[in-house]
Amino acid sequence: MKRLTDIICVFRIQLMSMRAEAGPFFLAALVFPTAMYLFTRAVSGTEAAPDQNRLRFLAGSIVFSLSLTSISWLGYLLLENRFTGRLKLFATMPLAPSSYILGILLFAFAQAALGTTALILIGRTFGVRMRPSILMLGSVVMLTVLCLCGLGAIIAARARSFTQGSILTDALGAGLVLLAPIYYTPETMPHSLRAVSQLLPTALAARAVQTTLAGGHQIGGEMMALGLMAIVSLTLGFRLTKWRED
Length: 246
Description:
- The chain has one domain (2-239).
- It has helices at 2-20, 22-44, 51-83, 86-92, 97-125, 134-158, 162-178, 191-197, 201-213, 220-239.
- The protein has ten helices and no strands.
- The protein is an all-alpha fold.
């Protein structure tokens, strides 16, 4: 019972941080991804293009939202916990590291569900035809969030200052999307980068999200790869987390 109470406590603390700074969260989760969807749709001239293009752009924007919230925004909160001394208070409550981790991940799932649901509704408003498999889509989103949260945790744990960490999380959150063939096809990339870019977690997630939005289920390879990446990044990220600064 105490473990559950601790997890909920950490979740509520992060939720209050989000409520206090709702503007940046909505920019990352909704405004920027929606703007990218509209931009790519406009420059590609998809008004008369197949629905598959619009579906790809929507899937890309969902992954963009997950990347910004799981790396940039959540990484910012982890940095804040570390450099304001809040993490030290968690450790002296006493609070088990596992409770802190699960509380953070619960918060990450909540914000991912909010952003993904909102973007799907926006996609329907703009006429994107989809037959989403909710269970499969939810599984892809969860694995993507776990993987990207691990990357954010690694940066938050290793950053030498709050400013450095903020810059790195912002750069990685956007860079993993812009460098991956999400809004464009892999064939448009330089040949030397093509193979590597398709192995980025955001590229794997975008392919899986697009498939599930279309009602497909052939995402076993992407799910396995994201799962392995999530295990590695989360294990490394939270093992490196400093409960007390030197």
